Structure formats: C-alpha cells, structure tokens
What we know:
Largest sheet of chain C: none
Radius of gyration of chain C: 22 Å
Oligomer: heterotrimer
Radius of gyration of chain A: 68 Å
Main location (chain B): membrane
Shape of chain A: rod-shaped
Order of helices and strands of chain C: HHHHHH
Pfam families (chain B): ATP-synt_C (PF00137)
Shape of chain C: globular
Largest sheet of chain A: none
Order of helices and strands of chain A: HHH
Number of strands of chain A: 0
Strand content of chain C: under 5%
Helix content of chain C: 55-70%
Site (Reversibly protonated during proton transport) (chain B): 57
Function (chain B): Key component of the F(0) channel; it plays a direct role in translocation across the membrane. A homomeric c-ring of between 10-14 subunits forms the central stalk rotor element with the F(1) delta and epsilon subunits.
Domain V-ATPase proteolipid subunit C-like (chain B): 8-70
Structural class of chain A: mainly alpha
Amino acid sequence: MAENTNAAGEVAAGAPPGMPQLNPDYFANQIFWLIVTLLVIYFVLSRVALPRIAAILAERQGTITNDIAAAEDLKAKAEAAEAAYEKALADARAEAQRIAGETKAAIQADLDVAIEKADAEIAAKAAESEKAIAEIRAGAQDAVKEVAKDAAHDIVALMGGKADEKAITAAVNDRMKG
Amino acid sequence: MEGELAHIGAGLAAIGSGAAAIGVGHVAGNFLAGALRNPSAAAGQTATLFIGIAFAEALGIFSFLVALLLMFAV
Amino acid sequence: MADEATSGGGLSFKPMDQFEVKALFGGDIGMFTITNVTLWLALAVLAVIGLLVLTTSKRETVPGRGQSIAELMYGFVYKMVEDVTGKDGIKYFPYIMTLFMFILCANFLGLIPMSFTTTSHIAVTAVLGFGVFIAVTVLGFVKNGASFLSLFWVSSAPLPLRPILAIIEVISYFVRPVSHSIRLAGNMMAGHAVLKVFAGFAQVAVIAPVAIVGVMAIYGLEVLVSAIQAYVFTILTCVYLKDALHPHH
Lengths: 178, 74, 249
C-alpha cells in the first residue's frame, strides 16, 4: 500500500497532485472566471432583477393598500346609508304619531262641541219642561182656589147663611198659604 | 513508511470531525431545549443558531482539511 | 490514489477526480482558457437569471409559482440584511444578494451527477471570503475612520483584560476570511467526496444496496447542506458588515 501510494505520488508529480483544489496552476483561471461571473450576476441583479422585484412588491403593497381603502370607503358608505334609513324611519314614525295626535285632537274637539250642543239642548228642554210644570202647578192652584171658594160658598149656603164673598176669598187664600 | 505515517495522521485528524459533530449537537440541542421552554423567542434566534453551528462546524472542517492534505497533498 | 496502481486491490476510490479542472477544448490551462469551471460558473449565471429575471418577466400582481420563488428569495435575503445590519445596511443589499444567489445556484448545480462543483474549490471561495473581508475592512475605515479600531477594544471588559482581549479579537478578525472561505469549500468538498466514497462501495455486489441507500441519504443531506452553507455564508457576511457599520460593542 505504501509503495502504491508512493508510486502514485511519483506518477502524479508531473501531473497535478492529489487535490486539484491545491494546484496553483488553475488559480488564475478560476479566479478570473469567478470574477467575471460575479460581475455579471451583480449587474443582472442590480440593473434588472432587484428593481423589478422591488417594483412588483411595491405595486402589490399599493394595490393592497388601495383595496383596503376602497373597502373602508364602501363600509363608511354602507354605514351612512344605514344611518339615513334609520333617520327616515324615525321621521316617519314621528310623523305618524303627530298625525295620529292631530286627528285625535280634532275628533275630541268635534266631540266636545257636539256634547256641549247636546248639553245645551238638554238644558233648554229641561227649562221648558220646568216652565210647563210651573204653569201647570200654578193652574192647579188657581183651580183648587176656585174649587175651595165654590165649596166654601156652597157649604155656607147650605148652612143657611149668606156667604160673604170677601171673607171666603180671604179665608181660602189664608189656608192656601199655610 | 512516510506515506503510512501520513495516513495514520490523516486518521487522527479525522477525529476532529467527530469532535465538531459533538459541538454542533451541543448547539442544536441547547437551542431546542431553550426553544421548548420559550417557543415565542425561538423564531428570532434561528439566525444565531445557524451562526453558532457554522462556527462549531468550521473547526471540524479544518481538521477534515488537514486529513485531506495528509492523504493527498503530503 | 488517483491512478491504476490501486485498481488491483479490488476497490478503487477516486473521490478527488470530480474536482479536476479540465480545459473544455483542449490545450493548456491559462488564465482565459474555457474550462469546466467556466462552464459551470456560466450555468450558475443562467440559473440566477432563470430564477430571478425570467420568472418575474410578467410582473404579475398575484404571483405564479416561479415569481413566488423569486419574491421569496428576495424577501428572505432582504429581511436578513435588514435584521442583522439595520436600516443603513440596506444599500449593500444587491452585493449580498449577488453572493447568496451565486453560492446557492453553484452549490445546487454541483449536486447534479457528473457536474463540477465550483464552490468546492478553495480558489473560488477564497476570492469570495477575502473579497468580503477586504470590502468590509475598507468600508469600516471609510465609514468610521480610526474609531473602527474600537471593534478590537472591548470597553465593557475590565481594564487589565482589554489588551489581551484586543489581541484575541485581532486574531479572530484575521481568521474570519480563512474560516469563511474554507467552511464553504470544505463542506462542499467533504460532501461530494463522501458521495464518491459511498458510490465506490457499490463496486462490491454484496454491499451495493446498502451503499446505494447510503448515497441517497447523503445526497439528501447534501441538498440541505448546500442551502445552509449559502445561508451561513450570507448571514456571516451580514454580521461582518454590521461590525463595519457599527464597530462599537
């Protein structure tokens, strides 16, 4: 094994040694092409790729922000519409209440007038009736006075006396008062 | 004879790779232990974890390199 | 190991052959030769363009599948930069995104069988690592002047300890690019070499089923490692950048 390795080392002496990484003959070539590669990648990235991706990301951010703003706007509009609807509803309710109140008041007024009128009529009728009753009563008293005078006159006549008209009237009047 | 000694030396140098493995395991294990205690703080420390692993591993790579040099370049 | 000498032993492992740099059209490998490195780096560029440019060409407000992936990657790295470095680190986001996308695509392309893993080469990752290191250091001095040095002067430590800590901090600062680049290359190289070794075991008929299941398991692990290494490289870059922007402890 040792001979083999030594032989290998001797064989490889002219050719590259065991590790190609350590052969300085290749360094210049690798370094040159590496620097070319890095420069190409750097220019591609800094001129084309990175600005483009940054623009895409910024645009997306802008789109998202705009969409969110639009959504907020629509939400605010919806809320405003809801508030307007609520207000209209409240107004209508108030109007209805007002109309109902007015109607009630008008009906009440009519009713009051009618009741008053009815009361007045009733009162007039009652007064009339009372008057009629008073007349009837007065008529009745006169009739009673007449009957009492006649009766007293007749009684006195039956007694055989001569009835004094004036005394009988005074007596009847006196009794009627009492 | 010289080549044999070089091979023995390469084998000895390769032990360093195992030592680096212990170091990497230590870093990762301690990170996991800490992350399980406080998972919310773990996400921010993954960069530190990788840096720690890289530093621990670098020394193992050095010993591996010494082994390679002994095998192929001496 | 990488020749016929061992083939007599029955098993032949060639885990390092996959990392060989070859000229695609023959000839010696000079600085500008088109090699398999060039090919796979170019494919990584195409993958990045396909992932981030072609998928977003319609600019849909509601993203489709491809565009979601592009946006996810953008958001992932953007959030990482913002979280780690703060608001003033955002202007370095394209550089960090470049690093992340390159490493991610190169790692994943390297997992295609018979492909070449560019990020497994130390020359490649060292350019990335030292590039980050130099850029961050220069940036730190430009932004903060001499007060950038307070990064090494731990003012919360007791006074007698501070010089010692300063030395340690300086050393660890200069080790950063080394570990940064070797971590990536080492992970990629190790994973692919292990895959090759397991595949080598499949030469023996008795253990071939086990070896194939092992290859599948390691392959799954490698997919995870590819993504995690890209993430780790990127987040460490962010951490270094944060140190340069805010050096005070």
